[in-house]
Amino acid sequence: MPAVPEKLQMQHLAWRAGFGASPSVIEDWTHKKRRQVINKILAGPEKDVQTPLKVRDASDLPDRGKMMSPEEKRALNRMNRQGVKDLNLQWMNEMVQSEHPLREKMALFWHGHFACRTQNVLFNQQLLQVIRENALGNFGELLTAVSKSPAMLQFLNNQQNVKAHPNENFAREVMELFTMGRGHYTETDIKEAARSFTGWAYEGDGSFVFREKRHDGGQKTVLGKSGNFNGDDVLKILLEQKETARYITEKIYRYFVSENLDEANINKLADKFYSSGYDIGALMQHIFNADWFYDARLIGNRIKSPVELLVGLRRTVPVDFEREEVMLSFQQVLGQVLFYPPNVAGWPGGRNWIDSSSLMYRMQLPKMILYEKEFNITPKEIIPEMGMGSYKVTMELNESVQKQYAKKIKGVINWNALLKDYEKVPREKLADAIAGSLLQANKNVSKQVLENYADASSRENYIKTVAIAVMSTPEYQLC
Questions:
Q1: What angle do CA 187, 189, 192 make, to 5 degrees?
Q2: What is the rounded radius of gyration, in angstroms, for the C-alpha atoms of the chain?
Q3: Do 197 and 215 contact (CB within 8 A), yes or no?
Q4: Both ends of the chain: CA-CA distance in Å?
Q5: What phi and psi, each to the nearest 5 degrees, are found at residue 374?
Q6: pTM for this model (two decimals)
Q7: Where does 45-174 have alpha helices with state H?
Q8: Are 131 and 146 in contact (CB under 8 A)?
Q9: On the CB side of 90, how many CA atoms lie within 13 Å of its CA?
């Protein structure tokens, strides 16, 4: 198999460690040592000040000691629903604008791993901040912070987990989905772990609280270890299991490398992850520095998630929409609405992103946005598998999409950066250069087909129309 060109290797890195990069950035990377580029990607900008994403304050909450009228309850529900939408758009914008795209890409991965649905906007923004702060840090610290977040404790019913009536939901998902995966624990382990998590709860303002009177302080046995365990003890026991390192590493490999698993590489990475004490950044560094990561078989073999597709497109051609809410509609039609995972296991990803209707819509998306076409695709339903009033929210989201129908997508499109990237490319090589920088897979997109879509009336129009044509191909769905 021929060697992969350095430029393509860097484009591959840019997409897997972020949401793509401009030709000028790729060109700069090709003149530097790979390790130097990766260190920079991991570290982010020199003055990296992480901005907390915040749309509501605790002061927006009603006084918990006060009985609310039906109208006040409805007003609170409206505030929460609008707040979650606002938080969604704020995070999408952060992904588009971020100078530390790996952190946001990693946070997007953890957002799916620690799948959670709550209608409380304060709980949502608190959990998101925990994930973003720890996205490249220590997995043990991330796991603990997520496990003590009110969003997760509420979602998995641990507020109802008390000594007299243990609730096993939280303990089960912590083992099955967050750490070891199925097959590495028994039902008895879950029951004993649930007893350990009794008393873990939260206050209305989002602060974690341990209610000692509701905690079972008796002897428990979890995964062969015995003691008067509490929740922190159980999380420590789970982190001591090598199966946890293996499970997390495999999931990261699927997301950042390939759905086709290489057991030997995963086992080596898992050993390093475990011995590092669960250093996420170090794990990503091992992956991105590995020669096998740049194998031609791993390039362009991954289907972009809807959020990756949308963010990547807007990082390539910046667009300021007249109504930013259209991004919610795009997410819903494509099947991935932030803060609304389909179930406790999160979005399945991979080929599940694509069906005949969604592929057609994906290919129409660049033209709809960049040509300001009408938005008239039927949205996918969000199928709620767990209660919490999700059905009502689903209907409201659908209604918001319905309101977009037959309306043109209006926005201010900034083509300057894209035009500048190709200003030195000869006219006869433009189509190949644009396809080469925007596509990871199957670079043999017919130049004649692109020419058919091109507006040759000016160099500027030619670059714009060829770029839109390239982004409207099936190959653009892959990274």
A1: 110
A2: 24
A3: no
A4: 20
A5: -75, 145
A6: 0.93
A7: 70-97, 101-113, 121-134, 139-147, 150-155, 169-173
A8: yes
A9: 18
Please give the helix or strand (H or E) that residue 39 lies within, else none: helix 34-43
pLDDT tens over the chain, length 479 residues: 678 999 999 999 999 999 999 999 999 999 999 999 999 999 998 776 677 898 888 777 666 657 888 998 899 899 999 999 999 999 999 999 999 999 999 999 999 999 999 999 999 999 999 999 999 999 999 999 999 999 999 999 999 999 999 999 999 999 999 999 999 999 999 999 999 999 999 998 889 999 999 999 999 999 999 999 999 999 999 999 999 999 999 999 999 999 999 999 999 999 999 999 999 999 999 999 999 999 999 999 999 999 999 999 999 999 999 999 999 999 999 999 999 999 999 999 999 999 888 899 999 999 999 986 655 555 454 444 333 334 344 445 455 545 544 456 888 999 999 999 999 999 999 999 999 999 997 667 888 888 888 999 999 999 999 999 999 999 999 99
Task: Tally the residues of the chain.
Answer: 479
Query: How far apart, in whole angstroms, are the C-alpha atoms of residue 379 and residue 362?
Result: 13
Q: Which amino acid is at 440?
A: Q
In the numeric block, the tokens 């099955």 are attached to 176
List beta partners, residue 375.
407
